[in-house]
Amino acid sequence: MIGGYCSHKDKGNHSARKGMILFRRFSYFGDGVSRPTDTTMVCVLSAISQMGLLEVGALVHGYIEKLGFTPEVDVFIGTGLVDMYSKCGCLNSAISVFELMRAKNVLTWTSMATGLALNGRGNETPSLLNRMAESGIKPNVVSFTSLLSAYRHNGLVQEGLELFQSIRVLPSVAPPPTGVSLLAYLFPLPLRLCCRRSEFVPPSRFRSVGLALEFRRGWVNS
After folding, report:
1. Dist CA 40 CA 3 (whole Å)
2. CATH topology of domain 104-172
3. Which of 105, 160, 212, 220 has the fewest beta carbons under 10 Å from its own?
4. What is the C-alpha to C-alpha distance for residues 3 and 155, in angstroms, rounded to an integer?
């Protein structure tokens, strides 16, 4: 039930709140035998991320350590903590947890890279993606989608285009062949529809970063 509520995202985060209430009841009024698993705690961290409750997140982090789930050895807990701290605006804590982790998967690196973008340090993202590739893990479509969505969320369209252009020249972290179409995630729907020109420009038309830049300039200057 906790996982179901925490994974269901809705406007107002009502489901996440219900999940947190259930978790509190479970942790305070349990049968003394059952205890939360690492899966339960990752779900709880997700709910905290949705609500942006940093103080609660710090308390839950302490509770996780008390349960014996340390980010150094548990990649899922570590990734959940990186994501939670990043989305709650505490980037330094996210970086500390990230650097402590002995094992990292593609979601861990994606969460850290997205956290940098969300917290105004997107200029460090290419370097982190390079480190990711050097560790033997290559960014996937989800990685680029999350990154570009983070730039759009902060209104950093130009910065997102510059990031995409910079990583295209790095073979180790270059987007997949269809990656250029991901640029659509940088633009809100009105831009994609190009309403001032009454012309729909589908993502498939973004055949190069240059075209995307021209499209943006044309819309802004029209």
Report:
1. 7
2. 1.25.40
3. 220
4. 32
How far is residue 77's CA from residue 213's CA, in Å, rounded to a whole number? 39
Map out the domains of the chain as residue ranges.
12-103, 104-172
Q: CB-hemisphere CA count at 13 Å for 95?
A: 11
Residue bearing the bigger pLDDT, 103 or 7: 103
- The confidence score (pLDDT) of residue 106 equals 93
Contacts 24+ apart (CB under 8 A), 99-106: 100/71, 100/72, 101/71, 101/72, 101/75, 102/72, 102/73, 103/73, 103/75, 104/75, 104/78, 104/79, 104/135, 104/137, 105/75, 105/79, 105/137, 106/132, 106/137, 106/138, 106/139, 106/140, 106/142, 106/143
User: Are residues 58 and 37 in contact, defined by beta-carbon separation less than 8 angstroms?
Assistant: no
**Cα gap 156→125, rounded to integer Å:** 14
Place of tokens 């910079």: 166
Confidence tier at 207 by pLDDT (50, 70, 90):
very low
Q: State how far the alpha carbon of 5 is from the alpha carbons of 24, 46, 48, 149, in Å.
A: 13, 10, 12, 24
Look up residue 122 and give its two tokens.
Answer: 């997107």
Average pLDDT estimate for 57-73: 92
